[in-house]
Amino acid sequence: MAYRLGKNLRLLPMLRLFRPPVVLLLLLVVALLTACGSTSGSPAQKQLNLYAWSEYIPPKMLDEFTSKTGIKVNYDTFSSNEELLAKLQAGGKGYDLIIVSDYTVDILKKQQQLEALDPARLPNFKNIDSSFKNPPYDPGNRFTVPYQWGTVGLAVNTRKLQRPITRWADLWDPAFKGKVVLLDDEYEVLGMALQSLGYDKNTKDPSQLRAAQAKLLRLRPNIKLFDSDSPKTALLSGEAWLGMVWNGEAALAQREDPAIRYLCPQEGCGIWHDNWAIPKGASHKEAALAFINFSLSPEAGILITQAYPYSNPNRSALELLRRTEPKLYSAYMASPATNPDPAFLKRAQPVEDKGSETPLWDRTWTEVKGEGGS
């Protein structure tokens, strides 16, 4: 409501003309109008502080949300779930909406750091495919709503490499000295080394972690860089010939260079699910709910897939994409980076919370990166 206190005060001289019951009624109306004006019109209610992965939220979607609602979005970025956790666990406040991955949801729920969502405020949740609802890390979607999902696999520039690359173990070939890019992600990289040794990607066995550490140290001469923000850049420039990438990065690389191939290695690959969530104590919870619902619309879903083609859980968005952009839809459906087949997914394993062994994993990763890490 657009009334302001200054305008309402003009009614006060007129109150003397009415009997007490009417005066009380009018005073109540004035109070209600004043209260409405002090909330919806407040500049503090017209902003949203978003914390998410870099190169992940389409600027066009942010602009359209602001145009539609008048809510300005302040977009701050992180490069790993561990960076997000460290910020929140250190008492970092001020964020109203975050992107959080599956295993990280478990951690934040245990720490009671997430706000429960109001389903009535999220009518577009109906657009999410049923297979992505009610996930094991958040039964009933009490705290999260799907944003995107995907895999972590091996990208190969087939223009540089004519021989078949099918395993993580191929990365250790001395012919690839200084030609490998890896994600700057401890759970995926250590997990890859464990898989290459035939171990569980999420092991809590110290001896197996030591073996993975030793194997990664032997890989060091081949590693050009660790990069979680844009690993495709090294592949497209030719600095790296192959390496571990997010599926969306592989899809973007393939748009620029069809010679980039993406696969799930024989030892197994990764799979992840990213979600919207509202941190406990968010100052602009209503704005956060409005943005989540906006992102779940088919039109916003298309913007997401156009800009950052990971895998989209929004069934209605993909159907709209099929009707309006058949060429992009066909490319999406044909690529294992965006639409992995059952055989690919059968070998995909998610990251799990390491619980009490988290410090051991952190220490192992620090030692790996400390050996001349980039």
TrEMBL record:
BP terms from Gene Ontology: polyamine transport
Keyword Transport carried by entry: yes
Pfam families for the chain: SBP_bac_8
Cellular component, GO annotation: periplasmic space
Record's keyword annotation contains Coiled coil: no
SUPFAM superfamilies noted in UniProt: Periplasmic binding protein-like II
GO molecular function: polyamine binding
CDD domains, per database record: PBP2_PotD_PotF_like
UniProt name for this protein: Spermidine/putrescine ABC transporter periplasmic substrate-binding protein
Organism of this sequence: Gloeobacter kilaueensis (strain ATCC BAA-2537 / CCAP 1431/1 / ULC 316 / JS1)
